[in-house]
Amino acid sequence: MVMAGRPRGVDDAVILRAAADVIGRVGPVGLTLAAVAREVGLVPGTLVQRFGSKRGLLLALAEQSAQDADALPAHVRATHASALEALTALVVEPMAAMATPETYANHLAFLCIDLTDPEFRAHALTIHVARGRAVGELLTEALASGELRAGTDVTALAGTVQAIVSGAGLNWALDRRGTLGQRLRQELAHVLDPHRPPRDDHDPEEP
């Protein structure tokens, strides 16, 4: 008798995206292998075979997130006309899945694991360093191309950008005005605008 085998055509990347979606709904504590397996049409035993345990799955997700953070800067720079446009995308795109304060809170709970568990923290630090480096590189390019005023301290500005991004999410989750993407764009603009060169608002047709 020939028995049907378990589905094997689901890539790990699909499973990890499903795990991120489940975290957004129930948080890392509420995540189970069974819930992720249902999301992708597998049985929990398949996830055990691939990742070993819930912790193994979460570590794989953290590692994948670190790899994505390395790849994102090149992607946004290739798809935007200017360095500051690319910087805005770099800030906003990773937050796209956090459409509600509840989803944001559930992903923030994952960050709490990152801060207290050394294995998870290593991946979180990789993401932090990669994004900080990308922010600095884009600001340096913006300075060279004239999008920022001459003399702008891009190192200090990069640190401010990273701090603002973290704080904007928390403020938005509390006051719930607009969307997270709108808040991030708004706060980033507030940080960058004083460093942009003055615009010539003079109308040449006026005397």
TrEMBL record:
Presence of keyword Cell membrane: no
UniProtKB keywords: DNA-binding, Transcription, Transcription regulation
Keyword Transcription: yes
Signal peptide: none
Protein name per UniProt: TetR/AcrR family transcriptional regulator
Ranges where the HTH tetR-type domain occurs: 9-69
Pfam families, A to Z: TetR_N
DNA-binding span(s): 32-51
GO molecular function, one term: DNA-binding transcription factor activity
